[in-house]
Structure formats: C-alpha cells, structure tokens
Amino acid sequence: MASILRSYNRFVLKSPLLAMSLTTGTTMGLGNIISQTVIEKRTIDTVDWGRVARFSAFGYIAAGPFLRYWYYGLEKYFTGVRFKPLKMMITDQLIAAPFINMAFLCYFPLANGKSISEATDRFYKLNFQDYWINIVFDLIAAI
C-alpha cells in the first residue's frame, strides 16, 4: 500500500493537472456508482453506465482542471496570512463551490441530450433560495 501511495505522490508532483483531472473524474464516476447502487438500490447489472460516464467526463474535463488551478491560486493568494486554512475554506465555499455546482447544473442537461434552451430553462426554474440556503449550511458545517 505504501508503494502505491508513493507512486501516486510522484505522479501528482510530475503531472499535477492530469492527476487532479483523473482523480476528480474517477471519484465522480465511483460516487455515481455508489449513489445508484446504495441510494437507488440498483444492482450492478442495472447501473446506468451512460450516467456514470457523464459524471466522470465532467470531472475529467471541467471540475478537475478548474480545481487544480483554483487550489493552486488559493495557496498562492493566501501565502503568509493568519488563519490561512480557514480563509481558504471560506473563499472556496463562497466562490468555487457555487460556481462548480452551477456549471454542473448547466452541463448535465446538455450531456443528457437536452437543447441549450431546455438546459437554461431547467437551470432558471431551480429554487435558488433553497440552493443558497444549502451553501450557507455547507459553509457552517465546514467551519
């Protein structure tokens, strides 16, 4: 196990963007498999593999690269400040989390074959009051 971790750490140092993209996409795909099997009570035979691929693709192509540069920027911006982890976490939750969530909410209908107008209609029909309340609770829970 230790050699696997060492290999992964070398890979992250050598190719941080690729490592973050692969890690994010794989984690999103595995998370969707877990969601379908544990929460939706599907068997492995009835898993929607297209949905898994769409979740993974978002991680590989959008979320992974964005998060790589976002966290790199946060590290540089908050160098030498007091309460660095707390300030980084608050900034992340107030800016990046809503951005990634909204990007996902726009991406997924398009990835499911919906038109841009259908995707934007769905996006605007969301109850943003509930959405922002969830963000506040996530932020409080993280602190």
Provide an overview of this structure.
It is found in: Membrane. This is Mpv17-like protein. With 143 residues, the chain is an all-alpha fold. It has one domain. The two termini are 32 Å apart. It has helices at residues 2-14, 16-39, 49-77, 84-111, 116-125, 128-142. The model has no long low-confidence stretch (mean pLDDT 90).
Entry keywords:
143 residues; 6 helices; globular
Write the layout of secondary structure elements.
Elements lengths: L1 H13 L1 H24 L9 H29 L6 H28 L4 H10 L2 H15 L1
CA-based gyration radius: 18 Å
Helical region count?
6
Distance between the termini: 32 Å
Which class do the helix and strand fractions yield? mainly alpha
Mean pLDDT: 90
The total beta strand count reads 0
Indicate how many domains the architecture comprises.
Answer: 1
What is the H/E order?
A: HHHHHH
- Tertiary shape: globular
For the report, how would you describe the main beta sheet? none
Strand percentage: under 5%
Low-confidence stretches: none
What percent of the residues sit in helical stretches (DSSP H or I)? Answer: over 70%
What's a quick, concise take on this entry?
The protein has 143 residues and is an all-alpha fold.
